[in-house]
Amino acid sequence: MATIIKKPSGIHAAFNPVILQVRAATQEERESGIKCTLSSGARSSVIGREFFNDLTRFDLSGILKYRFTEETADLPQPYCFLDGRLAFEYGIDLSASTHIAVNAVAQLQRNPDMSTWGDRFLTDLPAIKKYRGYPLDVSYLNNSRSAVIAFDGETLNENDPVADLHFSITIPDDTASVTVSNALLPICLLTNSGEKIQTNGLRDIIVENPAQAAAQAKGGIVSSCTPGSPCYLRWINRLGGFDYRMFCLNQVYGQSVKMQTVVSPVIDDILNAGCTDYGIDAEVVRTVSVGAGGLTGIEYNELLNISTSPRVEVWDVEVRKWFRVHVASGKFEHGTRDTRKEIELELTLPTLQMQF
Question: How much is the pTM?
Answer without folding.
Answer: 0.84
